[in-house]
Amino acid sequence: MPRSAALLNSDDLSAETARPRRSSKPKLGQHFLVDAGAAERIVAALGDVSQRTVIEIGPGEGVLTSLLASRSRRLIAIELDRVLAAQLRMKFAARENVEIIEGDVLAIDFSTLLGPKPGLTRPGLVQEPERADLVGNLPYYITSEIMLRLFSLHRWLRTLVVMVQREVADRLAASPGSREYGLLTATARLYAGVEKLFTLPPQAFRPPPKVHSSVLRLTIAPQLERLGVAEAEFQDFLRRSFGQKRKTLWNNLKATYDQRALTQAMRRAGIAASVRAEALSLEKMAALYRALARGPGV
Ligand code: SAM
User: Fold this and answer.
1) Which pTM value belongs to this model?
2) Residue whose CA is at the smallest distance from ligand 1 atom 21
3) Pocket lining: 137 vs ligand 1, CB cutoff 6 Å
4) Which of 107, 125, 176, 282 is most buried (CB neighbours < 10 A)?
5) Neighbouring-strand partners of residue 101
């Protein structure tokens, strides 16, 4: 499908004339953004990155990469497709602030990317990990896995601007009690404030996907301390609580906890026996978790 000149930036234009367009790999979720205005809005949603390190997931043909290369202090772009990674490396060879990493975002070690550099340590010197901003039009076949991995890497991250399938965006930004609220929403709430920014139709991409896409901004703000919960245990508790969507919270948890203790803890947390996990705020879930951790009361 030909693109109009208005959809291209100058970096794209020089690359376009140099080689024929390769076809995309649907298995890798390759739907390339061709709406230049949307690319601009996505990058702008990160705020001023002139002094920041930005990680880009799945740069593809580089529509966001081109904008970020000239705006960020350091850009690390992670692309799984070997051919695209090689093309990007050539395209940005002259940019000292851009690193193209060929790899799987689900496997990349963020501490190697962002941790202290060897040789910079000396006794008594405490180095805070560098927290990066992150951007990406995510490959939709692994969106939930990527989001869960990013939450597990929250200590390395600050602001995330991601494009996901509209339905996933609705789940991530849902309010308790709504049909879309679930384990992914509760986990997102545990680590970040979530804003839904805008939605794009399939025609904004080449080739067009079957679904609409939405852009979210997540501002990392872990709630573990405020809620008085231990990270791994509370995540496990959430997984069990949301175990089967049709079941009540009590039914999902009764195999794990002593039933009398569970009934008592729910009463102490002010939760009705008939309620489902998706109806409860994260605060209520944490109150139940704490009541169960405290054990049988008087
Ligand atoms: N950012 C580009 C754009 O907006 O036009 C491409 C977005 S496309 C939806 C998703 C990109 O993620 C593709 O370039 C694909 O090759 C890459 N990708 C797929 N799986 C990946 C993975 N596990 N790790 C890193 N990149 C991946």
Assistant:
1) 0.89
2) 80
3) yes
4) 282
5) 78
